[in-house]
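Posting for a labmate who doesn't have an account.
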Amino acid sequence: MLDSIPGRVFVVGVSLLIATIAYSSQAFIFLPAMGWWSIKAAKSLIPFNLLVLMIYYNYYLACTTDPGPVPQGWEPPYSTLQPQEGLSATDTGITGPRYCKSCKVYKPPRTHHCRYCRRCVLKMDHHCPWIANCVGHDNYPHFIRFILFVDIACSYALGLLVWRVRSIMNDIRHFRPTTTEIVFLVLNFILAFVVLFCVGILSIYHMYCMSRNQSSVESWERSKVNTLIKRGKILPIKYPFDVGFYRNICSVLGNNPLTWLWPKKPTSDGLVFP
């Protein structure tokens, strides 16, 4: 069903949803309550607008950054093309290089073919209709920062909305809010809570995956492998890309924790992994 909807429809819808929560709340609730262009309004709303700016910028990067093309002419190391002397593929557990019949190219480690984009993507995580793009090695950091800033900004907005409701309740005898303010209070509460709930669950899942240095595809594959191990179908196998909690996060967000939330390109090439 989602396949039939153009990607730009999702992008426009997400952009309008962000704008509705960010700007209707300020125009009809926060600014009138704080005296419009006052110091109080500046202290409360400048940080909020900076968060919204980071949402838009990281969303733009997630949508427009190529998730990771397989370099033209890439081939696996020569050693993986040759069988080990005296051992079969069954003995070593090596089945040879991975090859995509659709793209007619060798697939580097952790690369998968996206049936929506009709191409192979380096360290593919999933195809996301909300950004009209695949999430892969090159734009996964932007995607992570986008959803994290959505969580932070929605939490901030909900905090301001709670403050406004409490101030109304404390002064209800002397001040009656307008119908417009009440409508936008309810609307923004619902929208901010629903977005925070949905994106929050998505964020927790991806933080879990990132901490284990696995993509969504690899998470599904690991679950399948664990099931086969429990049934005795295959021998236990260790996941090779987990290099420790801290290094796993650094491999996605960068080596400096102080700049984890600052937009930047990944440091690795998406072809070789520790």
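Reply:
Got it, the structure tokens are right above this. Confidence is low (pLDDT under 50) at residues 89-93.
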